[in-house]
Specification:
The complex is a heterodimer.
Chain A (H helix, E strand, L loop, with lengths): L3 H12 L6 H13 L1 H18 L7 H10 L16 H18 L19 E5 L2 E7 L2 E14 L2 E13 L7 E4 L4 E4 L3 E5 L2 E6 L1 E5 L5 E6 L2 E5 L17 H10 L17 E5 L18 H11 L4 H14 L2 H16 L3 H14 L6 H9 L1
Parallel strand pairs in A: 4-5
Antiparallel strand pairs in A: 1-3, 2-3, 3-4, 4-7, 5-6, 6-9, 7-8, 8-11, 9-10, 11-12
Helix pairs in contact in A: 1-2, 1-3, 2-3, 5-6, 6-7, 7-8, 7-9, 8-9, 9-10, 10-11
Chain B lengths: L16 H12 L3 H23 L4 H16 L9 H18 L1 H6 L3 H10 L5 H16 L4 H12 L4 H8 L3 H21 L1 H9 L2
Helix pairs in contact in B: 1-2, 2-3, 2-4, 3-4, 6-7, 8-9, 8-10, 9-10
Classes of the chains: A alpha+beta, B mainly alpha.
């Protein structure tokens, strides 16, 4: 049975190698001699410590060092300034990274992806052009095909153009998303190819989400989904998969292009069709909208505007709300939040209540409730 | 780099402080030969550290190479406030934690039952073999811990490094380090008690 003395003995056992006083050593020895549990711990830890101390080395350090020295990729760029780090730049970079991080909703900072054991993945980045080697993104790897361009933050990949072959490690059990202008592919572990027009699954299964978060299609191995095909198979709805306005605000400040565009899509409109990979029909490109600013860009502008003029920002948010569409929910929540920040609590509560009424399952619903209760 | 560098080990004490400073200055300016000399002196220590943290295996060389690449890249920012060895061990600790966290490492981790069965059916013929088996068994148990707990536990409890040093090397606070060590010890001993061979050995040894 564990006693207080056992707890103390456990602490002493932890420190035994780091150093005990004579009195502590005597106390430990006495206790270990009387207590079966602690005797076990003591013997086990001693054995483990001996095993670790005698762990054999293969004398591979020299060859590893030679290879590292011969590796030209480890060269420091010549423009780098030796000595003191420009802390202001570091601060700006950290702030921008934090903003992107929050905006992405990513939660797996520090986790390493599959692939090579020894290369730590970057948290964010951008690749343009054909990248024959897999780029490690979170717990997945991405190969850029054709003239592709994509960027990523955490486990959120945004495909700008071209086609990506994606492989996601299923053992991590974390969401991995590929965003295109017209849809999002949600996956927890599989292998698939995605372009701006279609998704082909070679292993596992994925969900194709519309920008408002509703499920467009559930695909399993061997199936394909295309944008704009006549029949739709989307089933069920999910809360909005949009970033929070705080995140959008931060991203807009750091990088106006870093938020995925939902696009003016009706959640009820069928937008895709599932078919076998063998289908040979070419995907139809979505119609471009060259002259009208997108809802996303207007939302971002409103967020930026909120720093200078609250009233103008509120007017911009209200305009988005009136139009409906996928950004209306975010605009309504952002308006409520902005009003709350400016101390206009009554108006803020009305806006947030309206948000909860209209989007009870929205991604910002919990935050809205918390703000109302505050 | 046309020629292979000759690694010189253990020659640090032979150099005057002035030479040491000029050598480090050359390293900071990107001189590969100087880096080869400085890093070569600590290469064995780095390898030993990695082996202790992740156990012996083919991955050690890759991880060591990754550590040296990181060190070469970081040398221009090395200000000499810490000893080169401490700085290198810190880099090695972080690289190893990254590797231990990776799904690729978890996939290659030894299946515990396999080792249990093999060991349970075999009588250890000598001390050397027994030590190897204990290390392998320990590695299996350590694979069950999270990377940060594992590293903190090994460095403090098994290697005897002070908490403050472990905290610095892992980039965590002292409180977090203590907590990691506590939970790692608890989890490891729980696993050890369930292990038939270890339980038999340590309890039967009384």
């Amino acid at each position: 049975m564990r006693t207080l003395a056992c707890v103390r003995a456990g602490g002493l056992l932890e420190r035994r190698r780091a150093g005990l006083t004579d009195a502590e050593r005597l106390e430990l020895e006495q206790h270990v001699g009387e207590c079966d549990d602690c005797h076990f711990e003591s013997a086990a830890l001693q054995t483990f410590a001996d095993a670790v101390a005698s762990a054999p080395t293969a004398d591979v350090a020299a060859s590893a060092l030679r290879r590292a020295l011969a590796d030209r990729s480890s060269e420091v760029p010549p423009t780098r300034v030796a000595g003191r780090t420009p802390w202001a730049l570091v601060g700006v970079a950290l702030a921008a990274s934090a903003a992107l991080w929050v905006a992405s909703g990513a939660s797996d900072f520090g986790s390493s992806p599959s692939g090579s054991l020894t290369t730590a993945p970057k948290v964010s980045g951008r690749v343009e052009g054909v990248e024959p080697a897999p780029v490690r993104v979170g717990h997945g790897s991405v190969v850029a095909r054709r003239a592709s361009a994509f960027r990523w933050v955490g486990t959120n990949v945004t495909l700008e153009r071209g086609q990506l072959a994606v492989e996601v490690d299923p053992s991590v059990h974390r969401a991995f998303r590929v965003h295109t202008p017209d849809f999002t592919v949600l996956v927890t572990g599989t292998s698939f190819v995605v372009s701006c027009e279609e998704v082909r699954v070679s292993r596992g299964s994925v969900q194709v989400l519309s920008p408002d978060g509703s499920v467009q299609a559930s695909l399993s191995a061997g199936q394909r989904w295309q944008v704009g095909a006549p029949s739709g198979t989307g089933a069920g709805t999910e809360p909005e998969a949009l970033t929070t306005p705080e995140a959008v605000s931060e991203v807009a400040a750091a990088d106006p292009e870093a938020v995925t565009e939902p696009g003016p899509v009706s959640a009820t409109e069928p937008r895709g069709a599932v078919g076998p990979v063998a289908s040979s029909e070419r995907p139809r490109r979505p119609a471009s909208r060259p002259d009208v600013p997108s809802a996303r860009s207007r939302f971002e502008r409103a967020v930026r505007l909120s720093e200078r003029s609250t009233d103008e920002a509120i007017a911009a948010f209200e305009s988005l709300e009136r139009e409906g569409g996928p950004w209306a929910a975010n605009a309504l929540f952002a308006r409520g939040q902005l009003l709350m920040q400016r101390g206009r609590a009554a108006e803020a509560r009305r806006a947030l209540s309206s948000y909860l009424e209209r989007y009870p399952g929205g991604l910002n619903a919990a935050d809205a409730r918390a703000m109302i209760e505050r | 780099m046309g020629k292979l560098l000759t690694l010189r080990r253990g020659s640090r004490s032979e150099r005057a402080p002035h030479d040491e400073e000029s050598l480090l200055a050359r390293c900071r300016s990107g001189d590969r030969e100087a880096m080869g000399i400085v890093l070569g002196e600590h290469a064995e220590a780095v390898e030993r550290h990695i082996v202790r943290l992740m156990g012996p295996g083919a991955e050690v060389e890759d991880v060591a190479q990754q550590v040296f690449i990181a060190a070469i890249r970081a040398f221009p920012r090395f200000r000499g406030e810490a000893k080169v060895r401490t700085w290198l061990i810190r880099i090695a600790t972080h690289v190893t934690i990254d590797v231990l966290r990776s799904p690729a490492w978890r996939r290659r981790s030894r299946p515990k039952t396999d080792v249990d069965e093999r060991d349970a059916k075999t009588v250890a013929p000598d001390e050397h073999t027994r030590a190897r088996r204990e290390l392998r068994r320990l590695s299996c148990l350590l694979d069950e811990l999270s990377a940060v707990r594992r590293v903190a536990f090994i460095m403090h409890v098994l290697e005897g490094r002070p908490i403050a040093e472990v905290a610095v090397l892992t980039g965590a606070s002292k409180v977090a380090t203590k907590s990691r060590i506590f939970w790692a010890r608890r989890q490891l001993l729980k696993l050890a008690r369930r292990d038939p061979v270890l339980a038999d050995r340590f309890e039967g040894g009384r």
